């Protein structure tokens, strides 16, 4: 049985009813799903009761790794004993995978705002506070390594700057300490598209179209040149280009799962993100992707130059641009395995 | 008195009534504005009566240069005796400028579809046919040099492929023989934005937002990084990024002048464009701009490699990306002066 790997919190109640613990294959790693209310002091909205949702996989006592993805990702990284549906990062997380759930304890959480219930500006510092609340709730003293990709890298940087005593090392893939002004403009237009849809109560249509534009920013021209070289056609008196079927279907799938409010608030959140590079004092491992139009390598180099810690930068060339962390499975797997090697060895020595 | 340099055909009747021949300063070069109906065989709509509008500046007998700009450009390149309002390419066209109206006869025309009266697919071959009709109407046997920028370069390539006996040389700036699939996707989304606006009879709002997205494709991240580095702000509970005022004003100004139909049909026209490089057998001078996201240098190199003629390629690095032909006045002036030097010298010898 295959379920979509990117279910959002709205769809998760369905997923949980389909895959409760009793039905899960015994081979899947032990896991718990946590959900609780907590009052956070949001930067732009003050004291706010928020629903926090997390997932914790692997044996108690193993070194704790937190894994955070893009704004569309959720707490469910990979199939586990608490939820057998595929997660959004099956390629990297699981037994024998680079983020090895047999040797590590792996934590993730749903972004504040992802459930559409929080219609206020949210920023990455709020997300870092939410992660801290999850750690405290689970009585986890410290994240050994936080692996963050895209938005997860930004939240990881905020967490490192705010709570350095609660994190050992940060692996930040395709994310920087500030948004690039061109990428911000690109996102602002996506939000205006959603607003144009909302004007006529065509919310889903606006969200779908905004997602299409977002897809262009996640990918790079090389991939489009490979996949969509066919000539434009004329259908019913209108010109249609080769990428339109693909983009339409990306938009539709997304709009079935995401509410306008969640899209808008998480999109805004990227543009509110800003961390002083010099405030980062824990070891950093950064990945920059040539061709990434959202987190261009220059920005990641600026972060590396400005931070006050040991910092390693790797550069990857990928036709997938910003989405390389999802699409370049082997190269990203190497980065992760390398970053987690010491932890895994330490755990093997201990065991 | 200053009038907007980018008036479209809709606004030109107003401009003509403000600046008729009698009022024009005597120093402006002699010019005629031509307007006539002609039946064209449009590729996707068959025999169609079209209104053609052209402007011809300079002395009879001087070598004829045709100058064509982007989809938003029109026939009015620079102030002249028939229309004293500033044109869209004052920096390059006029007495003593690189396209020297004292030594050359300079022709331009309004794009088919720009007046919003033609709601059918239009392609660059149709535009080339329209240019031929203008030449025939004016009894001009041959264009010595055609200077085309952006869409004008595409139309120039079509003209060269279709009517090689009517053109001596083509200078094509920031345009290639085919659209890049990524740029086509970008335009398709602009058209979908217009359609979303039209759904609720908010045509102008859709056109304005589509133009904002188009602006991102015309420019490059470097310029945005220089101009819009300020942090995002929260206004009335919404996040606003630094480039939004600029983009909003670009969109508004554009939507005041352009109808949805004209925008859609000219945008489509770029995606229908395709010329076999090997069909180009006249001398070519190409300009590629590093950082151009619509006509990336690789595409222009592919054209240079595939064409069956003498071809010279220059490469310019510009933070203005595709808009370099408008913004890099000195560098573009050199390219034009160089390309037109032989013509000007020939004319001086004759005089």
Automatic annotation (TrEMBL), chains A, B:
EC code(s) of this entry: 2.3.1.46
Listed SUPFAM superfamilies: alpha/beta-Hydrolases (SSF53474)
InterPro entries: AB_hydrolase_1 (IPR000073), AB_hydrolase_fold (IPR029058), HAT_MetX-like (IPR008220)
Pfam family, one: Abhydrolase_1
The entry's keywords: Acyltransferase, Transferase
Domain AB hydrolase-1: start-end pairs: 86-327
Enzyme class: transferase
Active-site residues, as the UniProt record annotates them: 150, 292, 322
Top-rank lineage group of the source organism: Bacteria
GO biological process, one term: methionine biosynthetic process
GO molecular function: homoserine O-acetyltransferase activity; homoserine O-succinyltransferase activity
NCBIfam families reported for this sequence: PRK08775.1 (NF006449)
Protein name (Swiss-Prot/TrEMBL): Homoserine O-succinyltransferase
């Amino acid at each position: 049985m295959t379920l979509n790997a990117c279910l959002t919190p709205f769809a998760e109640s369905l997923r949980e009813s389909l895959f409760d613990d009793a039905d899960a294959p015994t081979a899947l790693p032990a896991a718990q799903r946590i959900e609780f209310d907590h009052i956070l002091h949001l930067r732009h909205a003050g004291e706010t009761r928020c629903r926090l949702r997390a997932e914790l996989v692997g044996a108690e006592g193993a070194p704790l790794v937190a894994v955070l993805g893009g704004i569309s990702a959720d707490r469910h990284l990979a199939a586990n004993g608490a939820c057998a549906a595929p997660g959004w990062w099956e390629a990297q997380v699981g037994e024998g995978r680079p983020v090895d759930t047999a040797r590590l304890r792996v934590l993730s959480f749903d972004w504040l705002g992802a459930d559409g219930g929080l219609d206020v500006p949210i920023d990455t510092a709020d997300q870092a506070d939410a992660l801290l609340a999850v750690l405290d709730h689970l009585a986890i003293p410290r994240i050994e390594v936080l692996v963050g990709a895209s938005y997860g890298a930004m939240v990881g940087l905020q967490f490192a700057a705010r709570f350095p005593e609660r994190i050992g090392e940060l692996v930040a893939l395709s994310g920087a300490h500030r948004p690039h002004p061109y990428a911000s403009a690109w996102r602002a237009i996506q939000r205006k598209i959603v607003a144009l849809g909302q004007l006529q109560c065509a919310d889903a249509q606006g969200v779908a179209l905004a997602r299409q534009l977002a897809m262009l920013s996640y990918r790079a021209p090389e991939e489009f040149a490979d996949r969509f070289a066919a000539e434009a056609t004329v259908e019913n008196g209108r010109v249609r280009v080769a990428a339109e079927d693909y983009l339409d279907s990306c938009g539709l799938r997304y709009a079935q799962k995401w509410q306008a409010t969640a899209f808008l608030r998480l999109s805004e959140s990227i543009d509110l993100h800003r961390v002083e590079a010099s405030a980062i004092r824990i070891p950093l491992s950064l990945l920059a992707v040539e061709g990434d139009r959202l987190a261009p390598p220059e920005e990641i180099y600026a972060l590396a130059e400005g931070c006050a810690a040991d910092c390693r930068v790797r550069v990857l060339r990928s036709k997938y641009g910003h989405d390389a962390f999802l699409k370049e499975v082997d190269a990203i797997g190497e980065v992760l395995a390398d970053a987690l090697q010491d932890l895994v060895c330490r755990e093997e020595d201990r065991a």
